[in-house]
User: What shape does this take?
Amino acid sequence: MKYVDEFRNPEAVARLVEAIRQRAAALPPRQHPWQLMEICGGHTHTIFRFGLDQLLPDNIEFIHGPGCPVCVLPQSVIDQAVALAQRPDTLLCSYGDAMRVPGHHGSLLQARADGARVQVIYSPRDALDMARRHPDTQVVFLAIGFETTAPATALAIRAAAREGLTNFCVLCHLVLIEPPLRALLADPDLRIDGFVGPGHVSLVTGNAPFEFIPAEHHKPVVISGFEPVDLLQSVLLLLEQLQQGQARIEIQYRRVATTQGNPGARAPVDDVFEPAPLAEWRGLGKLPRSGLQLRPGYQAFDATHLLPDSPAPGTLPTADSTTEADPRCRCAAVLSGKLKPGQCPLFGRECTPDTPLGALMVSSEGACAAWYQYRHQGPAHGAH
Amino acid sequence: MKYVDEFRNPEAVARLVEAIRQRAAALPPRQHPWQLMEICGGHTHTIFRFGLDQLLPDNIEFIHGPGCPVCVLPQSVIDQAVALAQRPDTLLCSYGDAMRVPGHHGSLLQARADGARVQVIYSPRDALDMARRHPDTQVVFLAIGFETTAPATALAIRAAAREGLTNFCVLCHLVLIEPPLRALLADPDLRIDGFVGPGHVSLVTGNAPFEFIPAEHHKPVVISGFEPVDLLQSVLLLLEQLQQGQARIEIQYRRVATTQGNPGARAPVDDVFEPAPLAEWRGLGKLPRSGLQLRPGYQAFDATHLLPDSPAPGTLPTADSTTEADPRCRCAAVLSGKLKPGQCPLFGRECTPDTPLGALMVSSEGACAAWYQYRHQGPAHGAH
Amino acid sequence: MCLAVPACILSISDARHCLAIADSGGVQRQIDLSCVTGDIAAEDLIGRWVLVHVGVALAVISDEEAQASLEIWSQLQDLP
Amino acid sequence: MCLAVPACILSISDARHCLAIADSGGVQRQIDLSCVTGDIAAEDLIGRWVLVHVGVALAVISDEEAQASLEIWSQLQDLP
Amino acid sequence: MARTERISLAQGSGGEPMQRLLRELIWPVFANPILARQEDQARLAFELQPGEQLAFTTDSFVVTPLQFPGGDIGSLAVQGTLNDLAVGGAVARYLSCGLIIEEGLPVALLRDLCLSLAKTARDAGVQVVTGDTKVVPRGAADGLFINTSGLGIIPAGINIGTHRLAAGDSLVVSGPIGEHGAAILASRQELAITGDLRSDCANLSPLIQTLLPNAGLHALRDMTRGGLNAVLHEFAEAAGATAVIDESAVPVRPAVQGLCELLGLDPLQLACEGRLLAVVAPDHAEHLLQCLQAHPMGQGAAIIGRLTPKRNVPVILNGLYGIERALPPVSGELLPRIC
Amino acid sequence: MARTERISLAQGSGGEPMQRLLRELIWPVFANPILARQEDQARLAFELQPGEQLAFTTDSFVVTPLQFPGGDIGSLAVQGTLNDLAVGGAVARYLSCGLIIEEGLPVALLRDLCLSLAKTARDAGVQVVTGDTKVVPRGAADGLFINTSGLGIIPAGINIGTHRLAAGDSLVVSGPIGEHGAAILASRQELAITGDLRSDCANLSPLIQTLLPNAGLHALRDMTRGGLNAVLHEFAEAAGATAVIDESAVPVRPAVQGLCELLGLDPLQLACEGRLLAVVAPDHAEHLLQCLQAHPMGQGAAIIGRLTPKRNVPVILNGLYGIERALPPVSGELLPRIC
Ligand code: SF4
Ligand code: SF4
Ligand SMILES: [Mg+2]
Ligand SMILES: [Mg+2]
Ligand SMILES: [Mg+2]
Ligand SMILES: [Mg+2]
Ligand SMILES: [Mg+2]
Ligand SMILES: [Mg+2]
Ligand SMILES: [Mg+2]
Ligand SMILES: [Mg+2]
Ligand SMILES: [Mg+2]
Ligand SMILES: [Mg+2]
Assistant: This one.
């Protein structure tokens, strides 16, 4: 596929790896490796799928960040989605990613097995089509995602408003990338040296959400594409900045991302949504102004009205929050690069992709899930 | 079964047949046989099932009357039921009998095969239970029947009103026995000599609907039970009256029927229903005051409100009436005893129980259907 | 029309709504007694036979009348 | 997060709602162009490549930048 | 979480959850060395002696409810297929088992039904040697459907079938009719009927083995959908004859008759799952009846009529009062009547 | 009335409407003298030579939609079962056919699907000798389910199976993978995807017949649910070995890859219905590959890896850049991803 195959070219990869090796060797020597956090789960996926971490020299290490909207989905949102799906007249539409995420009373997959109506869709527009085709069914779209995914949701809501569709609404858990990064970087023990920035968020937002990283924490950021060549180029660019003691935002993913982002994608979002005072994150707790909520003019599309104990309109669901299901969970330490997934006492034992206990085991993009699937299949095979 | 087996006793039947033979022989001689009309399809069923007509002497003949609520159901009511069943949120509950009756666009069975929601029930209470169990579904009960069946419908509607059930309503085609009998007897050519009265209507109504027969037409009526012994006793009683030139109402079915009927069964009907100005009958056309409609206080339970071109509240459905689907149909002549079913040119050819064209082929209680099933299986086997 | 079957009242299942369990030839179903409790209390119908149509008892069966009916034919042999 | 794929615009399927048919590696799906038609008319995107996420085109791919990106590694052999 | 453990679509995916379902539930239940090889096909070291024939049959079972008085879909799925082998004179040897499971079926129920299937097979001395398990989404099936196919051997010298039917033959049923159909109807929630109704479902092979030596035996059929009525029509048509039945000779249990009176149905149309109709030369009928009645499964057997030269209808009922009437074929779904 | 003629529940009742369905639609389509006897079981004058084994298999087919690019449920129901016989080295002879039809299925569609089934069987030289037809109410099935069971003969001397798998064996696929799964996914309305996607479904027997003479052939498997991934795990486990696959050697057509990129799926998990994995002694692998490539159905064949002595995981993928990673087993239903 164009713009894919070229960026997987083994020769390019080999040369980049060699360049990284040389550049890494030129870095000042120190005891622990240089840690680069890929913020986005998509990058984590590429790293594991192609084994990029194993191509890096010993003194360079990837740390897997919080940027997977599924991993950070709190149980309370799943609980609400399950409750809505169980309503007899309601069809809950969800991205496939959210189907396995466990709430307090099981996942959407389990709810469907128990009789709730749940439909996996690819695009918010597919949920809209469901509502159009089944006027007697209340269609609820479980809208999750970061800034990249918000425009599609906003466009669907605007289309529903334009058509006067009354049987379509949205259970909204759209979140923003900057607040969790700020929370992470506030940790005084954080050892991360540089950041691989999420290219698909950036092409919408531009550099804005990441500017505080060099500005306030003096760490470099490279906005990266998702193919191996992209990622390795980004690593190379980060190493260059580190070697030169620089800390600025660079864009590797220039074929789509710009400093300013895409205002055409932000416009529908700004029209339909406003920042929510608080949003809950699995593994991170509640973060102020970290989510989006429907503006007053779009309240009619808020699915929380259908819930029995509906919260005040316009607030993100926060009831009955548990940020971590199990106190032994070491997600926070893994997230901040202090522990490898396999070093969590639950890893591969109680916590597996089929029975995830922590946020990072939930989606195949989560650091622990990726580690489990590509490196191990359970503790019997040892920690590495 | 008690009150059933005794009344099928072969010895009793043999003695009754012999007594009838003797009594018939004593009747004044005449060219055509003495014709006794059993008003009720239930009697027709017993006659054919046990072959009672073949036990009668040659000068006594049964004529099969109009008393089958399914046979007389007009196509327009089926059309309405089908339209309601096709609504996505609606479940239509019907007695099994009405499932095969063809409307203009097929039967309820066909509608169900095409995707409409239809449930066969045994009692109106079962329809009510459906509404209770499925609060998100609009349950429509297709209420057909004569005076016998009206009380159960009335009780269900009263229960729904008491409980405040808003998802239960009734498509009502309850009809009365007297108007079609009056229409029949108004025919100056009618040759019928006496009537076997419908015991299960009578036990509700008492003698009232039949009093005009001896009074205005000087023909005897015997209210009869439904087992062979009942029917043959009734024939014997009719022959006695005929022999003696009498014409009065007698009750053979005294174990349940009385002159006054059951006021306890009429009370809920009077509470919920009132006579409708007009009702339509398949094969008989529109007859004044021949049906029941909901009283103003129970309008909320009228399913016709759900129909797109809902008629004025409280009128029986009469739109788009066709009293006979095919002009060649000879139902009227069969009903009045002028023709045997097999003499209709459509019988067993175009008109069969699977593809009924006339009213009398619709239900297994109809004269033509009974004739077809028990005597023939198509024209290939000849007319007898 | 109006298929109705004799059934023997076994018990009152819901006194408030006048519902009973009745047996017809070995099968049981809930039926509504409210049309036949004008002159007789529901409990007093236990053990009595009623005639049931679409789940509603429409008459209490008179055993005397039934026997009388059955006696007619036994007298018939004396017929002339 | 945010799986996005390059797709080539084949045709405009619904001009009023800014919908187009796009091809990704031989499979076609309807996508929404309304986020990328600020500077360019929908019809002018036919034959161009966009990046699609959950059915919405979020960026027009700059082929020049892509080529530039790819040239970096061919220059790498000259690296010290 | 006190969720009922339920079957998920994942368990039909071909992956690990499905392997686990097979390993933990399906294979242990059916345990035998042929199945244990986990190949795509059972490999049977079959031997056929000269004159022996292989009998092969299939049936899908779609009964609702899945468990009913007297049996369940698991036992029925074995009995029905064994009966289809047995009525051809075959000795059953091997079964296949294809499960189509609706997402959401409680795992405990599935296990019970599979155990019932396996036990019924074991009791009959047959092995389930090959199988298939599919899971379909909620609403795409009705709990569980089971297909079984059966393999058996028809010994040399056995020659029964519709080709041997002849006018004059006697018609014998092995017991009271309609009990499976009545039990199923009553079990359906919407009719809310209870009573002394039990399915007659049974493996007829042991009974049939006692009948095969009868030289006058012409044909056997288990009466399933459409009941006695359907088999009479099938046999009459195959023989080019008319079946004449003495209505009062047909055994019907009181509760079945009661249900039929209540709902306006005809017991002759109700399904059986453990009754057969035997057609036998008239001079061998008494002996066949005695054989049937001597067996626990045939105690209620009765001679109910005979095949006669073809008349104007295929089946005639001779009623209580000696009047003959046509018995029309079953014309569709069984619908309760109110009139 | 311009109604589409649709299947009604009456046609599953055992009565006249069902007889008519069988007489007018089912039997003519499958016409053969064994089925024409209309007994409850097929009677097969089977002969087994010494050393021959009988192969017996069953599969239910529940594919949605019923017709898809490249095939339909009817052709698939034959191909799937024939493939399960063929991978054991058997020559297929007879099929059973159990239909479970949802009330409301258009009769014309049912006829087309049955014709397709019958044609596929005829083209493969097998007869459908016994069958069963059930109709279930609307909402109790998903249009049509078909079960087929198959009978075949494994010639003397054929000995392939998982018992012969050994570390060192080469792994060979017969063509590009995942095409059936991709075509089915794309056909589903809710994803609204079109493209150059056709099911690979095919009867593999002719291809397999050309492979059986290869003395190094150890085992064959058609890759169905769970795709190549599932068969690799099954074989690795059965062999007590680890399968090591060269990721870039696995043939995947561009449109299948495109669909996978779009939906975040892995082609190794997508079902095939006309591809096989062959396991062969390494010194016979080249010859097997040539045999495959010489046959029209095996033109895209490729050696994709080998069995190695057991390592810490059952299946290892050797990636584009020479990095090994575990290939986890399919963990459930295929769900499209957005992240
Ligand atoms: S193994 Fe589970 S609990 Fe432990 S860090 Fe990973 S996701 Fe969290
Ligand atoms: S055969 Fe049909 S059309 Fe003729 S009289 Fe009878 S019901 Fe009417
Ligand atoms: Mg069979
Ligand atoms: Mg059978
Ligand atoms: Mg059978
Ligand atoms: Mg299988
Ligand atoms: Mg269901
Ligand atoms: Mg198989
Ligand atoms: Mg298979
Ligand atoms: Mg297979
Ligand atoms: Mg069958
Ligand atoms: Mg369906």
User: Anything to note?
Assistant: The first strand of chain A starts at residue 34 and ends at 40. Confidence is low (pLDDT under 50) at residues 311-324, 377-384 of chain A.
